[in-house]
């Protein structure tokens, strides 16, 4: 048993089974043993690798897309340049480097990072020293806000439910002979799932992310009132169906209950919930990551960088471009959406 498994088992023994969302929150952010709270899991040597860690091109084209959006909105003289869950800070560092050539952009930008993990905050401070850190998105200042979030929403805890003839049975984590085991609560109606009664059958699983409407609502409020835009990149679908909870340790899938605190836990993001929560801001079309990056000119950027490379470095660069954009790699499974003021045009690459 991992140290966190013992803590969770003791709590269940005291107060009863917990929801999958409570379990996931403990696994990821328990201050003493949580996966993100205690380590840097990213990169080739870590448990999983993300787009900004694959190639600098990802942050470069995203940075230029944000700068274009800033210009399209009249170059506001003071604005927030923000990121949710910045990991190692690589994406924001690449955005800042790529936008140094955009006149006025850097001077007007105040960098704000929303990060729960003290270990990752320390990493971010090394590459983005002039940032201000927050625990929560609601602390962002009231001004135009240009924001990115890559693989942040998939780390927010989800509740899971199985449809039953009489309502919904929640997936819970309990104890059997001292070991953590999955169970189901008694069936009950769940108001937040009424809209799923029409498109599900008994036996099917649906998920709810309780924190998502608050985070997206705060984003929609600041962007709707002051201008700006958010680019959200994540795994997901318009209306999620089925059990999408995934645990990864050392680049391999593992049982979500097997190694609490030592495996990453993620779930697919439900884009319909984002669309419903982002008012008064608007949500763009959903694009695949591959099409979005192509529209932003990643291939031209790749060709420019390739001119300076040869041998294994060139091979690695070509593989990175393919990995980010090809439908068989990250190109199709990752989706991108923009949130923007209804009076403005959508960010580049996300117009209808
Ligand atoms: N965006 C980075 C890292 C993705 S991993 C990249 O693409 O490489 C998820 C990130 O979100 C980590 O930095 C993690 O510590 C942070 N995180 C997870 N849950 C959070 C929460 N509830 N509040 C703030 N940050 C959170």
Could you explain how this protein is built, in words?
The longest helix has 17 residues, at 56-72. The protein contains 13 helices and 17 strands. The protein has helices spanning 3-15, 20-29, 35-38, 51-54, 56-72, 90-98, 105-108, 118-127, 212-226, 271-277, 289-295, 298-306, 311-325, and strands spanning 18-19, 79-84, 109-114, 132-134, 145-150, 159-164, 167-176, 179-184, 205-208, 228-237, 246-249, 252-254, 264-266, 269-270, 282-283, 287-288, 334-340. The mean pLDDT is 96. Strands 2, 3, 4, 5, 10, 14, 15, 16 and 17 form a 9-stranded mixed sheet that branches. It has one domain (35-157, 209-340): Rossmann fold (3-Layer(aba) Sandwich), CATH 3.40.50. Helices cover 35% and strands 23% of the residues. Bound molecules: S-adenosyl-L-homocysteine. S-adenosyl-L-homocysteine (SAH) binds at residues 28, 36, 42, 50, 52-53, 85-87, 91, 114-117, 120, 150-152, 155.
What is the fold's blueprint, element by element?
Layout: H1 3-15, E1 18-19, H2 20-29, H3 35-38, H4 51-54, H5 56-72, E2 79-84, H6 90-98, H7 105-108, E3 109-114, H8 118-127, E4 132-134, E5 145-150, E6 159-164, E7 167-176, E8 179-184, E9 205-208, H9 212-226, E10 228-237, E11 246-249, E12 252-254, E13 264-266, E14 269-270, H10 271-277, E15 282-283, E16 287-288, H11 289-295, H12 298-306, H13 311-325, E17 334-340
The protein binds S-adenosyl-L-homocysteine.
The site of S-adenosyl-L-homocysteine (SAH) has 19 residues, from helix 4.
């Amino acid at each position: 048993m991992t140290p966190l498994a013992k803590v969770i088992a003791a709590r269940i023994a005291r107060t009863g089974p917990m929801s999958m969302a409570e379990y996931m929150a403990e696994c990821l952010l328990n201050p003493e043993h949580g996966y993100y709270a205690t380590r840097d899991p990213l990169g080739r040597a870590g448990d999983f690798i993300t787009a900004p860690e694959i190639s600098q091109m990802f942050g470069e084209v995203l940075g230029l897309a944000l700068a274009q959006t800033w210009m399209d909105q009249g170059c506001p003289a003071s604005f927030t340049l923000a990121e949710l869950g910045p990991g190692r800070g690589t994406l924001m560092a690449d955005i800042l480097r790529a936008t140094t050539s955009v006149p006025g952009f850097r001077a007007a930008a105040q960098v704000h990072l929303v990060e729960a993990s003290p270990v990752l905050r320390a990493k971010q401070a090394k590459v983005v020293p002039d940032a201000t850190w927050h625990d929560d998105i609601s602390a962002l200042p009231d001004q135009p806000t240009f924001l990115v979030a890559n693989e942040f929403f998939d780390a927010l805890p989800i509740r899971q439910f199985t449809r039953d003839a009489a309502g919904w049975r929640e997936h819970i984590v309990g104890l059997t002979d001292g070991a953590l085991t999955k169970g189901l609560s008694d069936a009950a109606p769940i108001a937040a799932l009424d809209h799923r009664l029409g498109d599900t059958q008994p036996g099917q699983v649906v998920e709810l992310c309780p924190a998502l409407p608050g985070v997206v609502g705060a984003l929609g409020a600041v962007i709707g009132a002051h201008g700006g835009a958010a680019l959200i990149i994540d795994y997901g679908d318009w209306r999620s169906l089925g059990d999408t909870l995934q645990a990864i340790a050392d680049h391999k899938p593992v049982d979500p209950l097997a190694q609490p605190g030592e495996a990453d836990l993620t779930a697919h993001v439900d884009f319909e919930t984002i669309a419903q929560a982002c008012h008064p801001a608007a949500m763009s079309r959903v694009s695949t990551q591959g099409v979005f990056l192509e529209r932003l000119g990643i291939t031209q950027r790749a060709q420019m960088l390739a001119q300076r490379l040869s041998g294994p470095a060139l091979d690695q660069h070509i593989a990175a471009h393919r990995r980010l954009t090809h439908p068989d790699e990250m190109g199709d499974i990752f989706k991108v959406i923009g949130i923007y003021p209804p009076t403005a045009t959508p960010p580049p690459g996300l117009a209808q």
